[in-house]
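Annex B. Sample input.
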Amino acid sequence: METDKGVEANNIANPIVIYEDTEVLVVNKPYGMLVHEDWQKSDTPTLVEWFLARVPTAQGVGEATATPDGKPLERSGVVHRLDRETSGVIILAKTPEAHAHLKAQFHDRLVNKEYRAFVYGRMHERWGSIDRPIGRSNKDFRLRSAQRGARGTLRQALTEWERIATGEYEGQNFSYLKLNPKTGRTHQLRVHLKANDRPIVQDVLYSGKLRHQSNNLGLTRLALHAHILEIVLPNGSKERFIAPVPHEFELAAERISEV
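Annex B, continued. Sample output.
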């Protein structure tokens, strides 16, 4: 099976700071950067490493986790995560108090998240929702599934979507979407769109043969970007943070001939 490896370590850009105060740091995470180390060894830099170099006092903030063999994993400051292949806005906690405050909001589903994505095929409706529980794939335990036959515990998951544009590029159909996940399951947007028969463009894990057969709208990366994050900060202010849509997404949108 192919893996979601991202780009070479020396080609990964640095995060761009969107907002910072004494309790939190909000950044635009680049495509290809892991948020934190995991049990699979990787030589690519992580967002947490970059964060701790900038904010050493945040060492140890958050929940302690370990590999299956008991080795501690460095996840200081992490409140939520983005897949390595997904770029966009993410918030990190500098203090235990800030971590608890932010974590509670994600747990209680008080955070609004908006993503942008390109998918294979036309979305004929203007908007809609995908309400499918997510479990483990029956073909590979490392993957998730929102389709019949999913294994293990099935967790409720809801994604709302809105079509921005749909059209053709070099004779193939694509759609540009705004996505609002109402739950936070692993790979939720990717498996929900696959289950809806509209997988995300250049999705190594979930688009199957489409990625090899398609022109992929000229994109060479996973077409998923965390665009907006709305959350109440520990200081009590409700903020709306925006990670601008990547330039390659703007070019791909222009390639769709019909809006």
